Amino acid sequence: MARRSHTSPEKGKSMRTERRASKAKSGSNESGRADTSLAYLPTREDILKFIEENPDRAGKRDIAKAFNLKGNARIHLKDILRDLTDEGELEKRSKKLSRPGSMPSIAVLDITGRDSDGGLMARPADWPADDENKAPLVLIRRSREDKGPAVGIGDRIMAKIFRNSDNSGPRFTARLIKRLERHENSVLGVLRQTEKGDWRLEPVDRKQPEVLIDKDQIGEAKAGDLVEVEVTRSKRFGPSRGKVSQVVGALDSEKALSMIAIHAHDIPHVFPEEVLEQAEKCKPLELGKREDWRNIPLVTIDPADAKDHDDAVYAERDEDPNNLGGYIVYVAIADVAAYVTSGSPMDREALRRGNSVYFPDRVVPMLPERISNNLCSLREGEDRPALAARMIFTAEGRKKSHTFHRVMMRSAAHLAYGQAQAAIDGAPDDVTAPIMESVLKPLWEAYFVMKRGRDNRQPLELDLPEKKILLTPEGKVDKVIIPERLDAHKLIEECMIQANVSAAETLEQKKQPLIFRIHDSPSMAKQEGLREFLRSLNISLARGAELRPAQFNGILSQVKDTDHEELVNQVVLRSQSQAEYSPENIGHFGLNLHKYAHFTSPIRRYADLIVHRALIGSLHLGAGGITPHEEASLAEIAAEISQMERRAMLAERETVDRLIAHHLAGQIGDTFQGRVSGVTKAGLFVALATYGADGFIPISTLGYEYYLYDEANHSVAGERSGKGYRLGDIVDVKLIEALPVAGALRFEMVSEPRPLPTTTKSFHKSKRAGRMSRGKSGPSAAFPGSRKRGR
């Protein structure tokens, strides 16, 4: 491996080609014996054709199986695939290989126009913005028999993708699955009246321009209202005109700020009447054919302000003499599938929402309160149906076996994280004292056993504490805190992870289709970017080998308790892929697990409800199992709930930004300490130490000299001085502007630029020399400073 890291790609390719040719010619393996596995090797063209025709079966194992390759033939296949990747003929996506510009089998598309025959044309909605011109065109195929919704230009749809076999027109065609809600011609914002009496819309999206509104187009809206405006006339120059189509509500308090995100992202927040009616008709369930676990003292451990409790835990020492030091861990999860049946109004609405969305001032739940906060909440002392995992661990933390059960349980106690931790730390209260010996101590002993297994597994251990906004009763920002990370949190987290693993293992063993939670390894491009950045800190990252979380943890341990700790944690985080849902299992890179599915939160995640139904059906645990229609639609469901998850994360983050901007609007001109959290060609993002919110510093305000952007080293530096700013730098900034509606803060840099690492200086020196050698005096790759710092 060490030699490979010092071999050039061209030389490595020629060596692999020579080795393949030599072994194929001799027909023998390394021991000299005839190797029948080399009797046939597919050509490069064979492999490329297979990958194009089978995008869902394009992993290395899939290709080897398709061509019946065994033994040394698999090694040669690996070499061919590496050559094709190095040449740009293939690229890796989610541990599958694909042709550049290819499409997945299920995709979200934006309809952009029509072809010469009048057919609708679309492009992938999530194609990278910097590569937008290479996004493939897709023809939407519809027949008269199609009963789906009518769609047109500007619509966003989910579609099944097919390769165009006749090579005429676009490379891909698509069959409509569903139209996704999208309002292309409307703008959400706050209605404002100028001193002259004119009416304007201040958009919540900072990238959208203002819209003029005639007085007779305002309707019943008032100044300060959050409204949706339909753009009626767009001008090439100057602001567009529109009319108020909907009054969302008065924006007179910070509590209303979360409503901006709800409407901007089309998050369903009002349950239809038929859904509420179905929920109200649900009654508590009897024991029936369920196993009776009401004598097992399961407890719930949640945040102090939690309103729903969908998981309970218990542990005991394993008395099996063949498992000395081992423990049995019980994880019971609310049996949501018993109430939310497939295809029912509640089920359709839950799929439409995908997950619950959590804002500082409110929760938009996936299920009605009657279900989430009552019938499926594992309340202390009340009988509740549950789906439970019973897992046996060895003293080393290895899971020895597990089983699933459909039970009736009764929570012995409802505990908060801090309350449970205080009891273990020697300060029990009236609730925890009676269950210390019987419940809490065995739970902690079992956790330390499971922790041994986790430590051996070595998942990715990023140290990036999350901030939490605390509000006053009036909905104003009180303070921002970093909750202490307790062993109680880690205990519940590890119990849930092991239950999720058990669910995935059981369903795979039963050959039951399901939705996995997957997390791909970092792409080659991100690996190379990280490698180049770490080199500036004199930290090496192995090249050529398939990276594992342990290698990232080794890097993080090197910078522990140093000035670079937060910086390296941030850069490692940015190198990671985004987790998502898929019926195709590629494992979970971050957790370092081969099989993983979400099972433990069916109240707030639709993926977990699907896994519950799959377990019920495959293990014959009664009514409520997965249906054939759901099995056939898993790819579409996975794509949809992945999109809904991203929508929720974006809405939550934007709401926090708006709350902080609203809170700081009265502190213009004040100076704050922050940390550079992002570096771009346009400027710096700085996260305030106290609040965690990001503000922007345009690069043109940094000083008089030109500033050059170094993407690899996450820095900008002055062209003459070589001094500048880098990701992770602690700086003082002055607040210049706060826009609560847009959630935007603008700062001015107060801290002086500082010397940068040698590699960064070399980069800027070469960029400057290159610019001068071309005879350019203007800012080709730089940005002119136009404002004196601190003015």
From TrEMBL:
- Any keyword Cytoplasm? yes
**UniProt xrefs under InterPro entries:** CSD2, NA-bd_OB-fold, RNase_II/R, RNase_II/R_CS, RNase_II/RNase_R, RNase_R, RNR_Ribonuclease, S1_domain
According to its UniProt record, the EC number is 3.1.13.1
**What protein name applies here?**
Ribonuclease R
Subcellular location per UniProt equals: Cytoplasm
Keywords (alphabetical) are:
Cytoplasm, Exonuclease, Hydrolase, Nuclease, RNA-binding
Signal peptide (UniProt feature, chain positions): none
Annotated family: Belongs to the RNR ribonuclease family. RNase R subfamily.
List compositional bias (Basic residues) regions by residue number.
Answer: 762-774
Annotated region (Disordered) at 1-38, 756-791
Record SMART domains = RNB, S1
Which reaction is catalysed here? Exonucleolytic cleavage in the 3'- to 5'-direction to yield nucleoside 5'-phosphates
Basic and acidic residues composition bias: which ranges?
7-21
Provide the function of this protein: 3'-5' exoribonuclease that releases 5'-nucleoside monophosphates and is involved in maturation of structured RNAs.
Which gene name belongs to this protein? rnr
Q: Where is the S1 motif domain?
A: 669-750
